[in-house]
Amino acid sequence: GQQLNQSPQSMFIQEGEDVSMNCTSSSIFNTWLWYKQDPGEGPVLLIALYKAGELTSNGRLTAQFGITRKDSFLNISASIPSDVGIYFCAGLNYGGSQGNLIFGKGTKLSVKP
Amino acid sequence: NAGVTQTPKFQVLKTGQSMTLQCAQDMNHNSMYWYRQDPGMGLRLIYYSASEGTTDKGEVPNGYNVSRLNKREFSLRLESAAPSQTSVYFCASSPPGAVYGYTFGSGTRLTVV
Predict the structure, then answer these.
(1) Nearest-CA neighbor of A60 among A85, A81, A34, A83?
(2) Which of A88, B14, B51, B60 is the most exposed place for a label (fewest CB within 10 A)?
(3) Gap from A107 CA to chain B (nearest CA, Å)
(4) What pLDDT band is residue A2 in, cutting at 50, 70 and 90?
């Protein structure tokens, strides 16, 4: 089946640093999504990307839909302690009434004050 | 808005016991999903229901059964719990095609001893 390779698996950074993570696939996707999971909670949607080459921002977060449609990137600028959590990428090919997301295994972010 | 509600939040079972995890959504979504999350494994799909009255197996269905009781509710049953089923379980829902991704519940942390 389809798989997403998300890297890095974990990051330990100092408050104020910028963060970059990415997701790659051997298959193309029509949609890329990025989720954040706070400790003890369920994943929450951060950014959705629908077009190859699209660059979308949400506050300090910026995500890009790769030109090849096989990858996506998430950047966090000037990290703060509340950025701690697990970030998941997800790819979607939708058709008809069925839409199953394929999830990466997540990037665990730790921020040192 | 409540979104996706899961009960219970925590549960400890003895090996061989049975239990049902409950999930309800109030967003009038057609599709509902059950995932399990284990360290380093990301989110793995157990079962999903594209619409009321239909259910399909996901990546890791063995040892589980599901019931789509009505449009709002989708339950997950463990008939004879095993230690390998110790995990955090997430329910999610989406409109048809999931173009805007899934909405997740806050999870049930299950320990089987």
Answers:
(1) A83
(2) B14
(3) 9
(4) low
